Automatic annotation (TrEMBL):
Organism name: Thermoanaerobacter pseudethanolicus (strain ATCC 33223 / 39E) (Clostridium thermohydrosulfuricum)
UniProt cross-references to Pfam families, sorted A to Z: RseC_MucC
InterPro entries: RseC, SigmaE_reg_RseC_MucC
Protein name in UniProt: Positive regulator of sigma E, RseC/MucC
Transmembrane domains' residue ranges: 70-89, 101-120
């Protein structure tokens, strides 16, 4: 997936870029709230030695986006469902009167544990080159706001 962005700062061989949102962003909502008012800044490998203020093209593997979506949405959902199922079984064993409420709370506990696990592994995900964007092309010398 390729997107246009503006280089806002540099650090070594990395550059912080602000993604230029397209009209498709208002429909997607994957990055944040889908609002054009909020900016999305990411760090990217600066292979082209782009300078601050330049418009660049950044690229991230589609596989990385699918993997990130799976990690942030599917795994927590599976944890919640597993927690609800185990909560129902445990409620039967313990003869709990409000089985549904108990199983829901166990499901919430599992989803919290899953997100804690994802958070704990965040450094691993940051170090993985798969989740790193790359600047692949310098499109224009300076960005002009209208």
């Amino acid at each position: 997936m390729k997107e246009r962005a503006i280089v806002v700062s540099k650090r070594g061989n990395q550059a912080e870029v602000e993604v230029i949102r397209t009209s498709a962003c208002s429909k997607c909502r994957a990055c944040s709230s889908g609002s054009n008012k909020q900016t999305l800044k990411v760090w990217a490998e600066n292979e082209t030695n782009a300078e601050v203020g330049q418009i660049v093209e950044i690229e991230m593997e589609s596989r990385a986006l699918l993997s990130a979506t799976f990690i942030l949405y599917v795994i927590p959902l599976a944890g919640f469902i597993l927690g609800v199922i185990l909560g129902l079984k445990l409620a039967d064993i313990l003869n709990i009167m409000w089985k549904e409420l108990f199983s829901f709370l166990i499901g919430l506990l599992f989803i919290i544990l899953v997100f804690a696990g994802i958070y704990a592994n965040n450094r691993f995900f940051e170090k993985s080159r798969m989740f790193t964007a790359r600047i692949v092309n310098v499109l224009d010398d300076q960005y002009q706001k209208y």
